């Protein structure tokens, strides 16, 4: 039995094609999804001709949608949004910021995108700013800036003593480990933490 089959789409299907397209799909996908949902039929000249008018309407809708997406992407490039979240004293969020959170925030600003079109490079788990790509088509992409801010005032001095990796995880340091490998070594006999002596002139 063939692993693929050709079908004529009777309705537009995301990421597959528009009504009137003849597509090649896996047999299981056809049998379990397309055919039971009346989204496709066996292609014939008569069936293709019968769908010609419906296809023309779909093509006009696709062209209008494309124009809208192009306009939205031009407006989104460099766009900034702010999300306020609860966090601990180190700025670590009690929950992560998701693609849906960002899509919802954009929708509130009049930019309708699907959650899957928000391409988070990694999970957002701490207070910071992030550059996040939004991709609505293979050739339509913008980059927005997402500010994740605390819902209360934090002790900035304490946060500055902490270091995090790219995914927001706290970098554990051994007691007594130097923060800066280039920091000068105290001279023998000097008190810990004392500043090094200035060179004599």
Describe the fold and architecture.
With 201 residues, the protein is an alpha+beta fold. Among the domains are: 4-50, 3-Layer(aba) Sandwich (Ribosomal Protein L9, domain 1), CATH 3.40.5; 74-160, Ribosomal protein L9, C-terminal domain (Ribosomal Protein L9, domain 2). Helix content is 27%, strand content 24%. It has a 3-stranded antiparallel beta sheet with strand order 2-1-3. The protein has a 3-stranded mixed beta sheet with strand order 4-8-7. The longest helix is centred in the first third of the chain and has 25 residues, at 52-76. The radius of gyration is 28 Å and the shape is elongated.
The span between the termini is 90 Å
Side-by-side strand order of the widest sheet = 2-1-3
Shape: elongated
Poorly predicted regions are: 175-201
Main beta-sheet strand count, sense and barrel state: 3 strands, antiparallel
What can be said about this structure in brief?
The chain is an alpha+beta fold and 201 residues long. It has helices at 27-34, 45-50, 52-76, 99-108, 156-160; strands spanning 4-9, 22-26, 40-41, 80-85, 92-97, 124-126, 128-137, 140-150.
Index terms:
201 residues, alpha+beta, Ribosomal Protein L9, domain 1, Ribosomal Protein L9, domain 2, 3-stranded antiparallel sheet, 3-stranded mixed sheet, 5 helices, disordered C terminus
Protein topology:
Blueprint: E1 4-9, E2 22-26, H1 27-34, E3 40-41, H2 45-50, H3 52-76, E4 80-85, E5 92-97, H4 99-108, E6 124-126, E7 128-137, E8 140-150, H5 156-160
Parallel strand pairs: 4-8
Antiparallel strand pairs: 1-2, 1-3, 5-6, 7-8
């Amino acid at each position: 039995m063939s692993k693929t089959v050709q079908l004529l789409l009777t309705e537009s299907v995301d990421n597959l094609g528009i009504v009137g397209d003849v597509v090649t799909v896996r047999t299981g996908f056809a049998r379990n999804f397309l055919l039971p949902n009346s989204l496709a039929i066996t292609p014939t000249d008569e069936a293709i001709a019968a769908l010609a008018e419906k296809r023309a309407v779909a093509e006009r809708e696709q062209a209008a949608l494309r124009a809208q997406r192009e306009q939205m992407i031009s407006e989104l490039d460099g766009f900034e949004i702010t999300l306020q979240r609860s966090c601990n004293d180190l700025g670590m969020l009690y929950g992560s910021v998701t693609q849906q959170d960002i899509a919802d925030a954009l929708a509130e600003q009049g930019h309708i995108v699907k959650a899957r079109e928000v391409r988070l490079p990694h999970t957002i788990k701490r207070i910071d700013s992030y550059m996040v790509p939004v991709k609505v088509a293979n050739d339509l992409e913008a980059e927005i800036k997402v500010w994740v801010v605390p819902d209360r005032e934090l002790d900035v001095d304490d946060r500055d003593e902490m270091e995090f990796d790219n995914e927001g995880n706290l970098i554990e340091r051994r007691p007594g480990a130097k923060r800066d490998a280039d920091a000068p070594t105290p001279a023998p006999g000097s008190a810990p933490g004392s500043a090094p002596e200035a060179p004599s002139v």
